[in-house]
UniProtKB/TrEMBL annotation:
This is Rhodanese-like domain-containing protein. InterPro entries: Rhodanese-like_dom (IPR001763), Rhodanese-like_dom_sf (IPR036873). SUPFAM superfamilies: Rhodanese/Cell cycle control phosphatase (SSF52821). Residues 1-99 form the Rhodanese domain. It comes from Nocardioides guangzhouensis. Pfam families: Rhodanese (PF00581).
Length: 106
């Protein structure tokens, strides 16, 4: 994962319960993502300190996280990106079944 990045797991609770957690990730439900990461929002997380935070969003297969990262960039969080292939690609990489499967989108 990108050095110094904040990994944000946006998968629904049922997927996290079924497939497992992503070590070191901050869990933020997709439906409140913008509120929690926007540094100007009164409901932000303490880690949402400014526009320069590097967020790497992770969903199940990489589709929802791509859209969510684009939304965060529209809010001014220009370093927001996602994990290509999502949690499933990370699992495959960790298991050694698909070397290089999970990549952070630049």
């Amino acid at each position: 994962m990108a050095a110094g990045a904040v990994v944000v797991d946006i998968r629904p609770v049922d997927q996290r319960m079924r497939d497992g957690s992503l070590p070191g990730a901050v869990v933020v439900d997709r439906n409140v993502l913008e509120w929690r990461l926007d540094p100007t929002c009164p409901h932000r997380l303490p880690l949402a300190t400014g526009a320069d935070v590097r967020y790497v969003l992770v969903c199940n297969e990489g589709y929802g996280s791509s859209l969510a990262a684009a939304t965060l960039r529209e809010l001014g969080l220009r370093r927001a990106t996602d994990l290509v292939g999502g949690y499933q690609a990370w699992l495959a990489l960790a298991a050694g079944t698909r070397p290089g499967a999970a990549q952070v989108r630049i």
